[in-house]
Write a structure and sequence with these properties.
- This protein has 261 residues and is an alpha+beta fold.
- The protein is 26% helix and 26% strand.
- The protein has eight helices and 15 strands.
- The strands form three sheets. Strands 1-2-3-15-7-4 form a six-stranded mixed β-sheet. Strands 5-6-9-8-10-14 form a six-stranded mixed β-sheet.
- Strand 8 and strand 9 form a beta hairpin.
- The radius of gyration is 18 Å and the shape is globular.
- The two termini are 23 Å apart.
Length: 261
């Protein structure tokens, strides 16, 4: 049985998932702010190197080498524009920032390779997690070797979105309705088993569980339910632990990351 547990590091709390117990990893709380990924990586493993991105709500997944080459040649910010990192060597800590979006950590139990993904509703609509899975497969992995932990994010019960947004995200799990009107996609999604949508009292609105969409995308790729775990924590409702953009309207984040073996 997969469990989520609170841990303490340098006096602050963070979450781990037993599914990823063979890797040093953490879904950090707001109490680690303003530490950057390189600093947090060193707290976990002094010999490891931490990597991050400038996240843009897309579906690009890079290796650290690709990210460094892009940032040196093309970007004034110093960070590559992408929303996912996948390790290429051991002792690489890959990190993403989130407030209400989904932090997704993936590990290959055979190779020790890992990935960290920032999957908000836009990235999820663009199937960023399947893009990351494909990068594992391209590196020699297979879906039966992958383990996925989807960390604290805004819970679907409290995440109100327009029907248009709900349809755009759910289109990613309803390929037969790719060209359909938003209202038809919403109706179909509401009737799915384990639907990621809930009805809302306000006309033209639904409640959207982005984490469940990511889980369904993974299952459509062939991952089993026991290879995927969703954290039982909501960034919006747990102000004592997490920043939430929807709650506070401030650009504050917590980091989530994993170190390759």
């Amino acid at each position: 049985m997969t469990t989520w547990q609170w841990q303490i590091l340098d006096g602050s709390s963070y979450l781990t998932c037993s599914l990823l117990s063979d890797w040093q990893h953490g879904f950090m709380t707001k109490h680690f702010s303003p530490l950057e990924p390189q600093e947090i990586t060193k707290l976990f493993q002094p010999k490891a190197t931490g990597y991050r991105l400038k996240q843009v709500h897309g579906n690009i997944v890079l290796t650290p080498t690709e990210a460094e080459n892009i940032s040196e040649k093309e970007l004034e910010t110093g960070w590559a524009l992408a929303d996912g990192l996948i390790s290429e060597e051991s002792q690489q800590g890959v990190w993403v920032a989130s407030a209400d979006c989904n932090p997704v950590l993936i590990a290959d139990r055979h190779s020790g390779q890992v990935s960290a993904i920032h999957a908000g509703w836009r990235g999820t609509a663009q199937k960023i997690v399947p893009v990351a899975v494909q990068r594992f497969i391209d590196a020699g992995s297979s879906v039966d070797q992958l383990l996925v932990a989807i960390g604290p994010a805004i819970d679907g019960k409290v995440y109100q979105v327009t029907n248009q947004v709900g349809a755009e995200v759910c289109r990613s799990i309803l390929p037969d309705l790719a060209g359909a009107e938003p209202d038809l996609i919403v109706d179909k999604a509401l009737n799915l088993t384990n639907s990621p949508l809930l009805p809302d009292q306000q006309l033209g609105r639904v409640r959207l569980d982005v984490r469940q969409v990511n889980a369904l995308q993974l299952q459509q790729l062939g991952l089993k339910v026991d290879q995927i775990s969703i954290a039982p924590h909501c960034t919006f409702q747990e102000a004592e632990h997490f920043f939430s953009y929807r709650r506070e309207k401030l650009k504050k984040v917590q980091w989530s990351g994993i170190i390759s073996n």
